[in-house]
Design brief:
Layout lengths: L1 H20 L4 H12 L6 H11 L4 H15 L1 H10 L1 H5 L4 H24 L6 H10 L4 H26 L3 H41 L6
Helix pairs in contact: 1-2, 2-3, 2-4, 3-4, 3-9, 4-9, 5-8, 7-8, 7-9
Length: 214
């Protein structure tokens, strides 16, 4: 009963926030993305889907507005992690997982944030945002990685909405809820293949460059 009441309150809160922001158009989506990323529940995906479905020719405006707002809002959990240190992160995860996340940041901090930022809920993005602050990721690199991941995410979602309609949001969320691990693995494989292709292409170009005469 209490859980149902909480859900009802959150739904009414989200509806109220969006009723205030919706008349602002792209700016409303930008502000909604800031609030949602900063930990205030706002249905950004549904709002984004509605805008894109109604005005598909403006998809790039909505993608950039949602991605930029999300990146700025993510500075809130990032700042909490940076100010609170290890204790903040260890309140949410055990020591073993803490070490695994730290190793990931040491190897490739940009993709450690970009990949989770690409994925829809229930990906635990806030956990990685806190970790970025705890491990003192450079702010400009943090913003760039979140923005890049969000651009990919909203662009893919936008094209799916244009093709299949706004109902695709619920479908994607359901798939993520039941197959989160496999979706993450698939994204990781795709990124690894893309990076490998870039490296091979660069190496091939370097070999093909004509040698300068002595």
């Amino acid at each position: 009963m209490a859980l149902h009441a909480i859900k009802h309150i959150l739904a009414r809160y989200s509806h109220f926030i969006w009723s205030v922001l919706q008349p602002l158009g792209g700016w409303g989506l930008f502000l909604a993305a800031i609030l949602d990323a900063a930990a205030f529940a706002v249905p950004v995906d549904l709002a984004f889907a509605g805008y894109v479905y109604g005005h598909p020719y403006k998809i790039w405006i909505y993608v950039l507005a949602a991605a930029a707002g999300s990146a700025l809002g993510c500075l809130v959990p990032y700042g909490i992690g940076r100010g609170g240190g290890e204790l903040v992160l260890l309140n949410h995860i055990d020591r073993h997982r803490f070490e695994r996340i730290r190793d990931r940041f040491e190897k490739q901090e940009f993709f450690a944030i970009m990949v989770p930022a690409m994925l829809p809920p229930p990906t635990p993005l806030k956990l990685f945002l806190l970790a970025a602050g705890v491990f003192e990721m450079r702010p400009y690199l943090f913003l760039l990685s979140v923005f890049a991941g969000r651009v990919v995410r909203f662009l893919v979602l936008g094209f799916l909405v244009v093709r299949f309609g706004p109902g695709i949001v619920d479908m994607v969320t359901a798939v993520m809820a039941h197959h989160l691990v496999w979706v993450i693995v698939a994204f990781a494989v795709l990124i690894a293949l893309g990076v490998s292709r870039m490296i091979l292409k660069s190496a091939r170009s370097a070999k093909e460059e004509p040698r300068q005469p002595a």
